[in-house]
Amino acid sequence: MLESRLAGVPSFRGLGPECLALLERHLETKSFGSNEIVFRQGDACDGLYVVAEGSVIMRSETPGRPLERIRDLRRGDVFGEAAALLGTPRLFAARSVGETVLWKIPQWLLGELLEDPAFTAFLPRLLPRRRAARMHSFAAAWSRKEPRIWVDREVLLTLEHGERVPARLENLSAGGACLVEVSAGWRVRQPLGLALGIEEAPDLLRVRGIVRWKRGRSTGLAFAGDGPAHRRRVAAALRVLTQ
Fold it and tell me: What dotted CATH number matches 5-143?
């Protein structure tokens, strides 16, 4: 019999061969590109995940509130166990960082295995570490000068020459923005000026800045504006975008 892929994962050490063989039969392999959604905050729990290759970031994505990084996960890390154990929706969102391969243990199988003491023994060991990471993240939110506010909605970008480009705004702060699926052919370090808005209010926020980074379908903008007036304009735009 082939050795289970999970045999080398520290969290699964100590499980008997029968349990590992059952997990191996139903283990699902899922591949993700850069910055792709594994699950959203509030999604129904679909199982337990293990990072096989690449990395994953878990973060809080609540519309109108600061975007908070909860934990970075790398090869061999297990995540999603809190919702799997409690039968609750996902507490946080999970996204791939670069090309990533995950193994998923489906929720229905977990329901059966939770009756096996040999399987459930490893799960509680993860919870204290996860709670500590969560508390550290929440504490950091109060000290951050430029919190990124999670928006996650469709917007319109009006470029300097008048062209309107649809995009999805993930987050916004006085320092910049993260956009997804922007059709404009921007290059990294390209200077730009634009108006950000929605169909009924296309001129919510006028900014100048540069394209700071591009990763997969996502683009990061760094704004040139600073000072109280700029911050007030960003805050006013956020009130409309998150209502």
Answer: 2.60.120.10
